[in-house]
Write a structure and sequence with these properties.
Helix content is 45%, strand content 14%. It has a six-stranded parallel beta sheet with strand order 4-3-2-5-6-7, with helices on both faces. A two-stranded parallel sheet has the order 1-8. Helix 6 links the parallel strand 5 and strand 6. Helix 3 crosses helix 8.
Length: 222
């Protein structure tokens, strides 16, 4: 077994343009983008937003995506008295996706079931957006708690609310995480790193050299 680093391909504009980190923190909306299904934990985010909005009534929650749980989530939003503060964007295309990302000061990935590679977290960090994720599946491998973002337990609206508050309360820490998050995605989740590791494996095989079980491809000598 050889471990090859995973990678994603991102929009070239997001890669080439350094974010305006200070401007991101001036936005007035919290964001979620993804499927609207029960396992995505959006109901926990709505309950967290209820706690936040009581202290900061001017904030908005933007929810982008569609799914089978949409009506239940909208009903919950109404029950929590959030109708005026939650914006349902529905399915978004590439242009609307960028507009969405540029309008939020943090992204929450509140899944309560296994996420494999947390693409939204990657996209968010690449754009320098403060990112909060739950401690399940591959999310903590992308959103490294206290380093590239903030990790909270699954199904914990109160912890999500605290993490969102912390984004603004500890501005210097947040700015550092925003920059580290972007750097991490560009360096560690790149096609180039994956290809480099793959070529090292091929070179080993061509030379008939033994590859240790559970080896990290990028660490193999060429």
């Amino acid at each position: 077994v050889v471990h090859l680093p995973s990678f994603s391909r991102f929009d070239s504009h997001a890669i080439e343009n350094e974010p305006n980190y200070e401007l991101i923190l001036e936005q007035k909306s919290i964001g979620y983008i993804g499927r609207l299904e029960s396992y995505k934990g959006v109901h926990d985010l709505l309950r967290a937003f209820k706690l936040i909005s009581e202290k900061h009534p001017g904030l908005k929650l933007k929810i982008a995506g569609i799914g089978g749980y949409e009506e239940e989530l909208k009903e919950l939003s109404a029950q929590l008295g959030l109708v005026e503060n939650v914006i349902w964007l529905g399915k978004v295309g590439p242009l609307e996706r960028e507009e969405f990302y540029s309008s939020v000061f943090c992204i929450v990935v509140p899944s309560n079931y296994w996420e494999n590679f947390a693409l939204v977290a990657q996209e968010s960090l690449l754009r320098g957006i403060p990112t909060i994720g739950t401690n399940i599946g591959g999310i903590p491998e992308i959103v490294k708690d206290g380093e590239t973002g903030r990790i909270v337990p699954i199904s914990s609206p109160d912890k999500i609310a605290v993490a969102i508050e912390d984004v603004h309360r500890n501005r210097e820490k947040t700015l550092q995480q925003m920059k580290l998050g972007r750097s991490f995605i560009m360096k560690e989740i790149s096609p180039e790193k994956h290809l480099d590791g793959l070529l090292k494996v091929y070179n080993k095989l061509l030379k008939r050299e033994k590859i240790p079980n559970m080896a990290e491809a990028v660490d193999l000598s060429s």
